[in-house]
């Protein structure tokens, strides 16, 4: 009887437990149904509370799927109600849960991935947008869902359009238009998008033909027709088309607040073109009211009411342009910068962050122009200081963030969040490297899709860790740059500084000499641009300068004057912080006065006047404080003997390192694997090989004995923080120029990985001259223990070497190498020794004199007695 009762109790417990499991699934669906039946902010709060509880309990397939459906419905509501950041997080949760647990029986593409891709595009996270869209295109291809494939490619073209890759978008749209499964509605959308992209390329006739052919009268096509009429100088027709577009827009019930705001923004752009500023301002105010319905002050909204939304950037930038009061103008730009920073907080890839900087740089130039105009009126130094701070904030944002992570890791080496963030960043770069290699070869499309999916997952994880770290280390991360720190560092280095900001219309130059800051504006007119490009092209190959030395020295001197650096004090350490095309200029080779000399040793090059060091930005210069050197050296010398790529003089470089007891990897031992294994174990890393600067489609590379090392593999290096990297290879400082970030080069990749100082080349270097310079560098390093001093002396020794012919003393041969790093000259203690010795002698003489007088007095007293 007791046993029977026990069995009943067990059965009751078993079925009850099943009931509880089923009840959890039902509870989730009941919560979803309740929310859908009454969607508002209050019901959203209730759903949020339940979601947290559900997420801790779900275990079975059905429970997990129910939670995915809850997330998708919640994300849809958030997306439609201007809660886009929340919507992104919600959709990401849905996708992670669905993908991790290999769930099925739900259209995850339609209800999660499509809106998530759209949200990433809207929020400026273009790399993630591309990855997610490619992911759902791949899923659709597996299922042969042609409708989704076509809409996916259209959405992908919008990503490319958003980042200014209009031709890439056109190529994609024209390709997908050939798909026989394209519906009439999709075809209309393709034609509209093609027209918009042609307008972006200013191919107005192509756009006009497409719009005539489609003969559609929806919002997008009518807006495009309005813009075309403006180009034809038909303002009445332009306004008429836009009024029709607006009418059509409001007829559709399915629009969000964001879309309404963008429509007002488009209309404001029309009136700006027609120079009706009053009408434009009113429309911009309407756009703001739409995005900020609870904000009372539309003149200058409070920062805490703003959120990560690209439309704000357009609104505030235009309001700033229309403003005549300088302070109000800057206030609007500051709001744009604030929103831009909010957007960047949600971005977890280098590429997207660099793209996001483009508009920040344009904005910064507008601010500098405002400050310059005020400075011309008032001559007050406060405007210079403000301008410098704005310029510095826009410099090398991605590199600064990576360097900040390195610093935080050094301060908190056991912090789990920092360690995971660092690992995820490294994994991300490794995957990008794999992806690029596969794209170059065109192999394994399935693996490409897998990598895109992994990249999306890693980026989502990185975003969450970035948020955690932002909260944990808020004070460290938000530490403000101070000009006083810069002045102190310059004084300690007994130096002077020249700092450039390259804009679209002007180069702004700041010179800090003897504790004073001088500000110059250099207009990028035809004369300056032509002279700069001519100077750079003199270094295309070894013969160009030698063929016309007079023309070179004349061009070089003109550039010296253009750059207004004649105020530099002679025989003083000089730091150059270049920007834009100036990244490709070796300032050593500038000629400081007119000359007719063809003897290079007597040409007045800047190198004879000043010792130069470069830096990427002022923050790096301040933070790069010389440390005690360990001088453990590793060198990689593939040499490539008996091949067309043989580096005959590379062995001479190796000999220079041998005297410093360096670990050398020669010939086949100079493999990529050995490089990756050993680069983090030594304080000085020397690489003597071939290098490429890359092309628009292919990345920069270093060539090892067995294979190429792509730039992304350098980004992925962990714990590689040498005190010096010497890149004895061609074009290691050359790469695609990105506004604000500089050249995306091999040298920058080493900086990204954590190198403190770096010596690299700006063009295709000569094997013989490089061997001479490197030999000189290490001989001088043995004597001085200074990277900065050794770089300078290596060039002096080369130019003063009588065994080297005059032709080989062309700056093409010796000025290629630039040193980005600290002024690490050790104090010369001889003065102090002499001073101490002199004081000691004086003290001894005084003691001796005192004693002599004492003994004389004693003798006199004795004599008296």
Automatic annotation (TrEMBL):
SUPFAM superfamilies: TPR-like
Residue intervals passing through the bilayer: 830-849
Keywords: Membrane, Transmembrane, Transmembrane helix
Pfam families for this protein: CHAT
Residues covered by the CHAT domain: 572-822
InterPro entries per the UniProt record, alphabetical: CHAT_dom, TPR-like_helical_dom_sf
Name of the featured protein: CHAT domain-containing protein
Organism encoding this protein: Flavobacterium ponti
């Amino acid at each position: 009887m007791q046993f029977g009762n026990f069995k009943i109790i067990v059965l009751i417990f078993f079925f009850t437990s099943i009931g509880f499991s089923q009840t959890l699934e039902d509870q989730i669906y009941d919560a979803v149904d309740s929310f859908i039946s009454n969607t508002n902010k209050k019901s959203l709060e209730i759903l949020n509370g339940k979601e947290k509880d559900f997420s801790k309990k779900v275990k079975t397939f059905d429970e997990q799927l129910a939670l995915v459906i809850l997330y998708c419905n919640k994300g849809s509501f958030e997306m439609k109600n201007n809660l886009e950041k929340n919507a992104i997080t919600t959709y990401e949760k849905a996708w992670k849960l669905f993908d991790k647990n290999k769930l099925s029986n739900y259209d995850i593409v339609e209800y999660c991935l499509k809106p998530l891709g759209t949200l990433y595009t809207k929020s400026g996270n273009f790399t993630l947008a591309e990855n997610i869209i490619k992911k759902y295109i791949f899923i659709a291809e597996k299922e042969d869902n042609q409708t989704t494939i076509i809409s996916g490619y259209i959405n992908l073209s919008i990503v490319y359009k958003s980042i200014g890759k209009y031709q890439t978008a056109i190529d994609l749209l024209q390709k997908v238009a050939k798909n026989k499964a394209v519906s009439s509605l999709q075809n209309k959308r393709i034609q509209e998008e093609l027209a918009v992209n042609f307008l972006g390329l200013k191919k107005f006739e192509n756009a006009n033909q497409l719009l005539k052919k489609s003969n559609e009268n929806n919002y997008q096509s009518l807006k495009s027709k309005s813009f075309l009429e403006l180009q034809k100088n038909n303002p009445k027709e332009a306004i008429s088309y836009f009024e029709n577009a607006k009418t059509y827009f409001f007829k559709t019930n399915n629009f969000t607040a964001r879309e309404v705001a963008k429509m007002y923004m488009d209309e404001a752009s029309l009136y700006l073109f027609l120079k009706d500023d009053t009408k434009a301002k009113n429309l911009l105010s309407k756009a703001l009211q739409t995005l900020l319905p609870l904000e009372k002050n539309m003149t200058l909204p409070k920062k805490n009411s703003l959120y990560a939304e690209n439309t704000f950037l357009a609104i505030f930038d235009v309001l700033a342009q229309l403003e005549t009061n300088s302070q109000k103008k800057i206030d609007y730009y500051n709001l744009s910068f604030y929103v831009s920073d909010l957007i960047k907080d949600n971005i977890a890839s280098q590429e997207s962050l660099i793209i996001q900087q483009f508009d920040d740089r344009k904005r910064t130039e507008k601010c500098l122009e405002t400050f310059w105009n005020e400075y011309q009126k008032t001559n007050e130094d406060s405007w210079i200081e403000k301008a410098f701070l704005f310029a510095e904030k826009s410099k090398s944002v991605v590199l600064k963030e990576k360097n900040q992570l390195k610093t935080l890791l050094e301060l908190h080496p056991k912090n789990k969040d920092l360690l995971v963030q660092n690992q995820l960043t490294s994994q991300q770069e490794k995957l990008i490297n794999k992806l690029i290699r596969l794209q170059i070869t065109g192999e394994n499309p399935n693996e490409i899709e897998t990598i895109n999916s992994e990249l999306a997952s890693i980026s989502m994880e990185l975003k969450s860790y970035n948020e955690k770290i932002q909260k944990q280390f808020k004070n460290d991360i938000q530490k403000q740059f101070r000009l006083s720190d810069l002045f102190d560092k310059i004084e300690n280095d007994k130096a002077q500084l020249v700092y450039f900001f390259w804009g679209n219309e002007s180069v702004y130059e700041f010179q800090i000499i003897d504790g004073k800051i001088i500000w110059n504006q250099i207009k990028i007119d035809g004369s300056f641009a032509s002279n700069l490009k001519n100077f750079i092209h003199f270094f295309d190959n070894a013969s160009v300068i030698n063929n016309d030395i007079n023309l070179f020295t004349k061009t070089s001197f003109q550039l010296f004057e253009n750059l207004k650096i004649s105020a530099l004090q002679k025989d003083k350490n000089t730091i150059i912080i270049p920007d834009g095309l100036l990244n490709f200029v070796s300032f050593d080779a500038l000629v400081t006065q007119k000359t007719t000399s063809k003897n290079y040793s007597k040409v007045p090059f800047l190198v004879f006047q000043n010792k130069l060091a470069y830096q990427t930005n002022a923050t790096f210069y301040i933070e790069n404080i010389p440390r005690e050197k360990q001088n453990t050296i590793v060198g990689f010398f593939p040499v490539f003997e008996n091949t067309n790529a043989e580096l005959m003089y590379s062995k001479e470089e190796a000999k220079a390192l041998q005297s410093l007891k360096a670990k050398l990897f020669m010939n086949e031992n100079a493999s990529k694997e050995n490089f990756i294994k050993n680069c983090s174990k030594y304080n000085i890393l020397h690489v003597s090989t071939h290098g490429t600067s890359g092309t628009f489609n292919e990345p920069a590379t270093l060539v090892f004995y067995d294979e190429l090392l792509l730039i992304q593999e350098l980004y992925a290096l962990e714990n590689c923080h040498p005190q010096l990297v010497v890149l004895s290879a061609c074009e290691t400082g050359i790469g695609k120029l990105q506004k604000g970030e500089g050249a995306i080069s091999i040298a920058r990749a080493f900086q990204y990985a954590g190198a403190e100082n770096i010596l690299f080349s700006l063009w295709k270097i000569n094997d013989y001259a490089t061997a001479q310079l490197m030999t000189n560098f290490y001989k001088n390093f043995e004597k001085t223990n200074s990277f900065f001093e050794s770089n300078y002396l290596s060039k002096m020794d080369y130019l003063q070497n009588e065994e080297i012919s005059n032709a080989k003393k062309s700056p093409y041969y010796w000025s290629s190498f630039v040193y980005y790093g600290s002024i690490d000259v050790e104090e010369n203690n001889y003065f102090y020794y002499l001073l101490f010795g002199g004081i000691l002698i004086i003290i001894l003489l005084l003691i001796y004199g005192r004693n002599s007088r004492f003994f004389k007095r004693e003798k006199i007293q004795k004599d008296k007695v």
